Amino acid sequence: MGLSKKVKKLAIIDACVDTPEEIILAADLVPHRLFGDPSLPHSAADEHVPPTHCVWTRNILEQGLRGLPGDIAGLLSIHGCDCTNRQFDIWLDSVKADFMYFLNSPLKRNNTALKFFSEDLKEFALQLEEYFKVEITDEKLHESIVLMNKIRETLKTISEFRNKMILKYSELHELLKLVLTSDKSQALKICEDKLEELKTRDSFSESHLKRILLTGSVLDDTSFIKQLENTGFHIVIDDLCLGTHYFWNTIEESGDPIKAIAQYHLEKPIYSTKVPSHARYEYMKTLIDAYSVEGVVNIAQKFCESVLYDHPFLKTKFKELNIPYLFVEKEYNREAYKQLSTRFDAFAEII
Ligand code: SF4
């Protein structure tokens, strides 16, 4: 039986920052991105996936198998990597949620991909309409696009306070997690208030901090970010889903809204789960120049195929660029983070 109540949340598993939040909002639902819980043991997920499965998705699966919160009305999973793709079959089979949709976000970025993605977004909207008994009109989509663009623009302005040595990435990280789980009108107000407050702050006195660009897999545990900062780094800019990839561009507000949403996702800075790798390197190179970056840190969740695939190429390119580069694979539990301190300390010393 379908549901028609407002303020229901649609859980999101997104390994590629391609969630069409505007469509979910136009269906009167709140997009609620799922984040990992590093304190959770993986007893249930271990029965479903092999030991070499990405530790982050294993953690998310564990949460699903234990039962999603009662206000979650369904689930959207987006094709980021093969891991999330194949894991969706387990969700379908073993997790209790009546509405589930797998969105085929394309890996390539060309006209065929645009047409394909637009069609799948239309199908997603249609299924939301049928299941939740709502009408997703162009007007509602347009309103959602305008709202999301305001949020993105405000977040981008907030992010610039990192460059002024006023805002730490860990604080932006917490804000982004709030935005990705809140009602979006409230989220806009929270962002606007944060921006006003930042304007009144002085810059940090810690002038010794090394300015780095942080890249890698989905890094959603703020305590890990704080550990990195406490080693002596200032994450002045990033190439992450909980970072620039969420707010760098805006959606065209005129024309066919579904096509505009698809176009936005195919034109925004390319993410680590997409190809070609050199386009991602070019994006990072632009950021390195613009933000006077002194070193690059690339963190892979253990067994993250996408980031492991790109690492040798990036290592070569950053060497050519003569910029210090550190690659680290991490487990998804806080006890294991401590072992990385020595490597972070050593890297801070060579910058
Ligand atoms: S961390 Fe890597 S392997 Fe895991 S879901 Fe994200 S992209 Fe896929």
Percentage of residues in DSSP E strands: 5-15%
Counting H and I runs of at least 4 residues, what is the number of helices? 14
Largest sheet: 4 strands, parallel
Going by helix content, strand content and strand pairing, the class is alpha/beta
End-to-end Cα distance: 59 Å
Number of strands: 8
SSE string: EHEHEHEHHHHEHEHHHEHEHH
Stretches with pLDDT under 50, minimum 5 residues: 1-5
Helix content: 40-55%
Explain this structure to me?
Helix content is 50%, strand content 15%. It is an alpha/beta fold. The protein has a domain of 131 residues: Rossmann fold, CATH 3.40.50. The strands form 2 sheets. Strands 2-1-3-4 form a 4-stranded parallel β-sheet, with helices on both faces. Helix 12 links the parallel strand 7 and strand 8. It starts with 7 loop residues before the first strand and ends with a helix. Bound molecules: iron/sulfur cluster. Iron/sulfur cluster binds next to helix 2, helix 3 and helix 12.
Topology of this structure?
Elements: E1 8-14, H1 21-26, E2 29-33, H2 55-66, E3 72-78, H3 82-94, E4 99-103, H4 111-132, H5 138-163, H6 169-179, H7 184-198, E5 210-216, H8 222-230, E6 233-239, H9 244-247, H10 257-267, H11 277-290, E7 295-301, H12 305-321, E8 325-330, H13 334-337, H14 341-350
Parallel strand pairs: 1-2, 1-3, 3-4, 5-6, 5-7, 7-8
Residues 15, 54, 56-57, 80-81, 83-84, 217-218, 273, 301, 304-307 line the site of iron/sulfur cluster (SF4).
Task: Give the key terms.
351 residues, alpha/beta, Rossmann fold, four-stranded parallel β-sheet, 8 strands, globular, disordered N terminus, binds iron/sulfur cluster
